[in-house]
Amino acid sequence: MTGAAADAHVPVLLDPIVALFADAPEGVIVDATLGAGGHALAVTEARLARPGRATLVGLDRDPHALALAGRRLAGLEADPRVAVHLVRTRFDAMPAVLDQLGIAGVAGVLLDLGISSMHVDQAARGFSYRQDGPLDMRMDPDTATTAADLVNGLEARALIDLLRRYADERFASRIAHAIVAARPITSTVQLADVVRDAIPHAARRTGGHPATRTFQALRIAVNGEIDALEALLPEIVARLLPGGVAAVLSYHSLEDRPVKQAFAAATRGCICPPDLPVCACGREPLATDAIRRSMTPDAEEVARNPRASSARLRAIRRTEVPLPTDANAHVTDPDPSRRPGASGRSSRR
Questions:
Q1: Domain with residues 127-223, CATH architecture
Q2: At 118, which helix (H) or strand (E)?
Q3: Tens of pLDDT along 97-134?
Q4: 3-112+225-338 domain in CATH 3.40.50.720?
Q5: d(CA 311, CA 251)
Q6: N or C: which end of the chain has fewer CB within 10 A?
Q7: Cβ neighbours of residue 279 under 8 Å, at least 6 residues apart?
Q8: Cβ–Cβ under 8 Å, residues 191 and 179
Q9: Is the whole-model pTM more than 0.85?
């Protein structure tokens, strides 16, 4: 990865994120999706402007991104107040990494979800329908399953389910059957053409490239992104020190929904029925909103970095309320009426 690649990567909502973690208490900051290290560098430098030490744990499954971030963060190593630990792993391994490092609680956790410019701009990685490349889409090149394996190996029914689950693709059936009929499909442009031709002409005129959702669904499935996110969110809240901050950047509703739900659960207090005169559950919020609702880039940032246009930032700040015995029960949705199947209907997308 070259220096030009580092320059091309523009951290999204950088100033608000730096401000959030500058106010976090003394302790470790985890960038669980390190990427090119832009957020991590700025956050660490800001924390060095205050008394004490700055410790960064950076995680990324992509060895190329990790090497790039390592070079970007190398200047911090000369400062005796800084400790940097970079680990190649997927972000849901954060609890295991912290345990290995002997770190019980952290002052902050950052997740910058989705795909970066480093991936999209390299045709050989197979993420982009605009450049011809192999159907790969693996963030970790050592992962066994590629997008080509799914495109050429799944039955039509499984492809339909994948497109609906990870992209809300309304033409999932047409696309899946077109893919099966066109096999073998070996390149990104070939797949994009198949998807485009499967979608009615009228639907192609709006909403961007017709293959966007199909590529999104395949990328999420190949990399297990949503399952990893849902597994990690309760662990983040459980690991935060009092006053610690968790911030998540998401780029589409499939990423944002579990973040919104997990953060809402953590900030929720009493869940007693409204007709009870006094609280009987004794539930207190584990966190408060560090950002009210959510934040999106302003017009000036989007003009500088169009890829930031869909970004949404959510953040919470840990209270001093102790975790309950069953920690996960207190940082997932506590209202049974909101759970799948509670009213005889599924809440799945």
A1: Orthogonal Bundle (1.10)
A2: helix 117-120
A3: 999 999 999 999 999 997 766 667 677 787 888 889 99
A4: no
A5: 5
A6: C
A7: 270, 272
A8: yes
A9: yes
